[in-house]
Structures are given as structure tokens and as C-alpha cells.
Amino acid sequence: MEEFLSAPFWLAVGQIIMIDILLGGDNAVVIALACRQLPAHLRVKGILWGTAGAIILRVVLIAFALTLLQVPYLKLVGAALLLWIGVKLLAPDGEDEHSNINGSDKLWAAVKTVIVADLVMSVDNVIAIAGAATNAGSQHQMPLVIFGLLVSIPIIIWGSQLVLKLMDRFPVIITFGGMLLGWIAGTMAHTDPALKEILPQTTSWNYGLGVLGALVVLGLGIVVKRRAQPPA
After folding, report:
1. Which of 36, 77, 169, 184 could bond 103 through an S-S bridge, CB–CB 3.0 to 4.6 Å?
2. Which residues contact 223 (CB under 8 A, 6 or more apart)?
3. Residue 88 neighbours by CB under 8 Å, 6+ apart
4. pLDDT averaged over consecutive 10-residue blocks of the chain (232 residues)?
């Protein structure tokens, strides 16, 4: 019980919620597109069942990710992917990921579309959330993941539009979000089993690599964004 009152636990919960807002904001768009052709009286059911199925699937995927991250060098791979996801968040490529999502006038067809689309788009969420959970200790990782996802559901469904407007008005939110992914990448790499014999397993090293990861994402994000801009 004391673990649930500790600062690392609630810090990880906050990180998971922030990650799901930043990387899961598309979920609301996916749900809307998949359910747009349903009759009005079935739309609420489509949204609820599709969201429930997507969340359950994500919990299963994260459970596998948490297990795999115990294998040497896989945390390093996950950290590299997180750095790439963070850079992509700061400098998006502009591709429309929703153009191939087709709605349906059948309830379970729409639910299936939501779940399949969420599965395809959840790789970044799964890696980032698993990385955040590993920093809170091994005893309560899955309860932490489930709690963080449950808290983020209403934020994603009902607050995504507000969050998107805030991001448009205050782009610094996206910058901090990308740097958060870099921080998680650095701290996750520090705890890779392959590096435990090489790097000192101290808090200062953990925080130092977290800061390094955040700065790497910020720097690469700025460079990629500038290169993507058309010449004046």
C-alpha cells in the first residue's frame, strides 16, 4: 500500500496520462470516423464498446511490453524508438493517418474498426507507457498502467478537442511532451539489464540520462523541423 502513496508512483501516473493525451489524441478522431455512419441511437454504444475493446487490447500489449523489456538490450531499442517518437511529435511529417479509416452503419463493424485502428496506432503509446511504468518499480507496474489508462479515457474522449486547441495555442505543450518522451527514453535505457554492470545505478545517473534524452529530442526536433520548412 505504501508504494501507491510514493512520489515515483504518482509521477509515473502523471507521465502515463500526459503520454496518452499527447499520443492518444487521435483516438477520439478514430472513434468519430469509425462511428460516424452508425444510427444516432447506436453511436454511444459504438463509442463505449470500441473504446473498451481498444483499452483492453492496449493493456494486454503493455503487459507483453513490460515482460519483453526485462530482456537485455530491448530497453535500449525501446529508448531509441521513444527518441524517434519524441522527435516526430516535435516535427510531424504531415501524413494523414486517418484517411483510410472507413465508417460503418453496423455496430460491431464500427467497434472492430475502432479496435483495429487503435492497434495499428498504439505502438508508440505502448512503448512510452511501458517505459514510464518501469520507472515506478516492478511491484505495481500493471496496476499503474491500468490506473493511468483508466484516468486518461475520459480525458481522451471528452477533452481531446480542448487539449488540441490548447496545443495549437500553446505549442510549448507539445515541446514539453516530446522532451518528456526523451526523458523516459534516457531513464529506461539506464535500467536496461545489459547496462547494469556498466553504468552506476544511482539516481543522479538516472536523472542525468533522462535530461540527456530530453535534450536530444529537443535538438533533433528543432533540426528536423527546420529542414522540413520550405526555403524562403
Report:
1. 36
2. none
3. none
4. 63 77 64 71 76 78 78 85 83 56 66 69 72 68 74 64 68 83 87 83 88 94 83 62
For residue 26, what are the contacts with CB-CB under 8 A and spacing of at least 6?
Answer: 97, 98, 121
Q: How far is CA 125 from CA 45, 92, 129, 225, in A?
A: 25, 16, 6, 22
Q: Is 94 left (phi over 0), alpha (psi -120 to 50) or beta?
A: left
The pLDDT assigned to 176 comes to 85
Q: What is the pLDDT at residue 43?
A: 74
Residue pair 187/135 in contact (Cβ under 8 Å)? The answer is yes
Could you give the CA distance from residue 94 to residue 57 in angstroms, rounded to a whole number? 27
Q: What is the C-alpha to C-alpha distance for residues 131 and 123, in angstroms, rounded to an integer?
A: 12
